[in-house]
């Protein structure tokens, strides 16, 4: 990383650290998001382009009290110097903002939706933290055929200049499923795993509620290995 990019990355992180109040007000304002008696933590999972954000926004209707929706992409946008194509330089800042909002939701009994791929290393820890706060925990895994999901990802890049490399897409596609399976195996009935299989070609979708870890690979079966998917994606 050159000096200019290092400075952009550092400035973004400093911005989040020094604007905590503004971040909370922007994404978790008290008039909208407020404490509830039995808070819920809902975690999205799945590859880029699968339709997670669309689903997460529709799931807001599931809550009687509006949740804080935590999306790293939306946190990047407020950072100075962000253009979309340089999204990788804002990962640390986005993670800081995500943790800030998640901590706030936990400490204040606020419903939350973590809108991410679930492919990150701290996924299990975040689940564990919610359980320690005696919150109901749900994982919503959104599956779309990876070739089609990649087409949506590329279309979004052209539209919003938000770039996801092919290598990152492939890694995320497999890691999201692996993490969801591992977390369900670890926490069992303490959490709920729901799977939404979307088929944009046919224009329909199928919902599987409260499935077991052993059912995940059957429901979201991929006919591609990592090598095959790499050669398949253009």
Automatic annotation (TrEMBL):
<protein>
    <recommendedName>
        <fullName>Zeta toxin domain-containing protein</fullName>
    </recommendedName>
</protein>
<dbReference type="Pfam" id="PF06414">
    <property type="entry name" value="Zeta_toxin"/>
</dbReference>
<dbReference type="GO" id="GO:0005524">
    <property type="term" value="F:ATP binding"/>
</dbReference>
<dbReference type="GO" id="GO:0016301">
    <property type="term" value="F:kinase activity"/>
</dbReference>
<dbReference type="InterPro" id="IPR010488">
    <property type="entry name" value="Zeta_toxin_domain"/>
</dbReference>
<feature type="domain" description="Zeta toxin">
    <location>
        <begin position="33"/>
        <end position="191"/>
    </location>
</feature>
<keyword id="KW-0067">ATP-binding</keyword>
<keyword id="KW-0547">Nucleotide-binding</keyword>
<dbReference type="InterPro" id="IPR027417">
    <property type="entry name" value="P-loop_NTPase"/>
</dbReference>
């Amino acid at each position: 990383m050159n000096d200019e990019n290092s400075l952009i990355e550092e400035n973004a992180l400093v911005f989040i650290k020094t604007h905590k109040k503004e971040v909370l007000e922007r994404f978790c304002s008290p008039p909208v998001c407020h404490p509830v008696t039995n808070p819920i933590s809902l975690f999205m999972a799945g590859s880029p382009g699968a339709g997670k954000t669309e689903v997460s926004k529709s799931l807001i209707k599931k809550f009687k009290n509006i949740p804080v929706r935590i999306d790293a992409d939306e946190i990047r946008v407020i950072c100075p110097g962000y253009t979309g194509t340089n999204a990788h330089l804002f990962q640390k800042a986005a993670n800081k903002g995500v943790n800030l909002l998640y901590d706030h939701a936990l400490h204040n009994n606020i419903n939350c939706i973590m809108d991410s791929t679930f492919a990150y290393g701290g996924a299990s820890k975040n689940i564990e933290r919610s359980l320690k706060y005696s919150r109901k925990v749900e994982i919503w895994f959104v599956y779309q055929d990876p070739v089609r999901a990649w087409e949506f990802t590329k279309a979004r890049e052209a539209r919003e200049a938000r770039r996801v490399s092919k290598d990152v897409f492939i890694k995320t596609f497999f890691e999201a499923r692996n993490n969801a399976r591992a977390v369900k195996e670890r926490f069992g009935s303490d959490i709920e795993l729901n799977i939404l299989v979307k088929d944009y070609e046919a224009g329909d979708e199928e919902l599987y509620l409260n499935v077991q870890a052993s059912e995940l690979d059957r429901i979201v079966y991929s006919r591609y290995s990592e090598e095959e998917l790499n050669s398949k994606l253009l």
